[in-house]
Amino acid sequence: GEVLKNLNKFYKRKEIQRLGAENGLDARLFHQAFISFRKYIMESSSVSADLHIILNDICCGFVLLGHVDDLFPFFLRHAKQIFPMLDCMDDLRKISDLRLPPNWYPDARAIQRKIIFHAGPTNSGKTYHAIQRFLSAKSGIYCGPLKLLAHEIFQKSNDANVPCDLVTGEERVYANEDARQAPHIACTIEMCSTNTPYEVAVIDEIQMIRDPARGWAWTRALLGLCAEEIHVCGEPAAIDLVTELMYTTGEEVEVRNYKRLTPLTVLDYALESLDNLRPGDCIVCFSKNDIYSVSRQIEARGLECAVIYGSLPPGTKLEQAKKFNDPDDPCKILVATDAIGMGLNLCIRRIIFNSIVKPTVNEKGEREIDSITTSQALQIAGRAGRFGSSFKQGEVTTMHRDDLVQLKEILSEAVPPVKAAGLHPTPEQIEMFAYHLPDATLSNLIDIFVSLSQVDGMYFVCNIDDFKFLADMIQHIPLNLRSRYVFCTAPLNRKEPFVCTTLLKFARQFSRNEPLTFDWLCRHTKWPLAAPKNIKELVHLEAVHDVFDLYLWLSYRFMDMFPDAVLVRDIQKKLDDIIQIGVCNITKLIRASQSAAAPGTAEVVSEDFPLSRTKKDARVVSDRHGAASTEALSVAVEAAGLRRAKNLRLSRLGSRQEDLKSYGRGSLANRLLREGLLTQEMLRQLESEWQDQHRNGRYGFGSKKDDQHRSKETGKKRK
């Protein structure tokens, strides 16, 4: 007991905490090291003789001989055993110093670049003017956020007789038949070269420099491209940050402001019923299940609709857009996610928000449900009434009346300025870390790097959760560090088990130095595949398409080990056609899925319960997510019952306005499970707590008097 008391006294000493910090132990590491040190002393059968003597002197109260501070050298020695980086902390701090990113690009610093910022809302012609300069230059590079955008510029450029190559993570298409590099390149932003000189560079959607996962790519392009002129296009909210960043490189920014080319009107009435749909309408949903639900209800009314969502292959998206845009096609309605916000030219007359909340990932990598931001709302609403389309004026509204007030508020707010630019550790930095910490896993190296990294106020380190997930997944496979790093940066959705399993198999075969052949891939994916008969099969086909994308991405980096890119690209195009057939028949697939599913386990959310809650409802989940997720989710799961009890949103809930208790594991619970906000274990715990709280009267819907009245009534019955 005396030993434990003195150890705790040692832990609480400010002087000891200060000494720990001087030796590289921040509050978190200090705490972890102390827990381990305390366990070593309390549970070890034999501590070193010198430590034993010190402990004895302290515990016996020999003030002149021993003081708790004397434990520090032993504590530090123990800490260095469990945290080897403490021995080379100075070197590691230098490697992870991210305070001067402009210095990483000496080629760009060697020239004086002219920066032109084309600022304006969606449909203002800002990108058009930048592209005109790109086309007139002797050489140029276009950097966009999506393959679709890069492909569009590639097509435009070659149609204008300006030879242009296409470079994405998965492919390189040459304009010249002899595979000679063209002077112009259209690429996805992660693929831009910072070593090749150009006359003009265009960086599209510059506001994405703040993106928690991908912002680093915009920072790298802005600071590192070797071009005489850099044309950046995007929201005015990014002007101040870009100007500040360029001040550190000694480059001035010329701002050109643009206004929207066609008027956009926020209507004073909501749609309220799908019976009120008109040609040129686009319903925007923020979940795939809402897409399924709404499209089925539309087709039940005898109307044809096109469907576009994020996980569809680019070819299918383009075909659906073409179908919707074609004046001779009977399809006049579009149901889409916010995937339409950029990358597709669409003839939309009216945007209808089915919901104004969406699942998001915050800077810490946590899942939240929150109202859409002003930036997102403007980006999506701006798709209506596009300049040059058949609709000269755009309109925007909501599906539900009580969402319209919130939408008007969101659209009227100023877009908050972009405050910081993303950064990401480079392979070279991680290799230097690995040299100092040879026994650390890649996931641990990344953790240590981020914890030690120093950034100034204009930058932040991007969320590396996906990277760490893949690093942990393939940790047991013997790979050299550079190859391991490449596998961990592969673009995949970690919520797709089939794609993750495939990456694991790719890495295992790669480590055995066995090439991943076309035949192997066909066996693994069971190619050839038939057209889908239900939604589950359609989702699987989309996952297979992602697997082909993954193969092509890796073939670009390890050509010898993934040798059959041409064959894989051919079957990927065929798969795209098969998926298109499925999407064209999506309502049949939904019906097949619902009829096959057992009650309460349908994969497709019932059509009368869309994800549609107000800002206030949404923040119940998001505001408390980090600190008390169980409590917040409990509130979220009970939201339908509480709203009913308080007589709110009666028009919204319709036939689903039942207490959650009678509804069981209903649509909201299933949705939270699918979105990763809830696990089966948490759901069981919530149900148990909910039932206990009902028994104890904690979540009764009546007043205290009602509770007293009920207890009296119960007492009478017992008598």
Automatic annotation (TrEMBL):
Q: Which UniProt keywords apply?
A: ATP-binding, Helicase, Hydrolase, Mitochondrion, Nucleotide-binding, Transit peptide
Question: Region Disordered: which residues?
Answer: 689-719
**Per the database record, which ranges form the Helicase C-terminal domain?**
266-434
Asked if Hydrolase is a keyword of the record, the answer is yes
Pfam families in the cross-refs: DEXQc_Suv3, Helicase_C, SUV3_C, Suv3_C_1, Suv3_N
Q: Which InterPro entries does the record associate with it?
A: DEXQc_SUV3 (IPR055206), Helicase_C-like (IPR001650), P-loop_NTPase (IPR027417), RNA-DNA_Helicase (IPR050699), SUV3_C (IPR022192), Suv3_C_1 (IPR041082), Suv3_DEXQc (IPR044774), Suv3_N (IPR041453)
Places the protein is found: Mitochondrion
Keyword presence, Hydrolase: yes
Q: Which cofactors, by name?
A: Mn(2+); Mg(2+)
A GO cellular component annotated for this chain's UniProt record is: mitochondrial degradosome
Q: What is its EC number?
A: 3.6.4.13
One molecular function GO term is: ATP binding
Superkingdom to which the source organism belongs: Eukaryota
Q: Which GO biological-process labels does this protein carry?
A: mitochondrial RNA 3'-end processing
Please give the CDD domains that the UniProt record associates with this protein: DEXQc_Suv3, SF2_C_suv3
The top EC class, named as a word, is hydrolase
Q: What is its main location?
A: mitochondrion
The record's listing under SUPFAM superfamilies reads: P-loop containing nucleoside triphosphate hydrolases
According to its UniProt record, which reaction does this protein catalyse? ATP + H2O = ADP + phosphate + H(+)
Segments of skewed composition (Basic and acidic residues): 703-719
Family designation: Belongs to the helicase family.
Q: What is this protein called?
A: ATP-dependent RNA helicase SUPV3L1, mitochondrial
Organism for this UniProt entry:
Dicrurus megarhynchus
State the taxonomy lineage: Eukaryota, Metazoa, Chordata, Craniata, Vertebrata
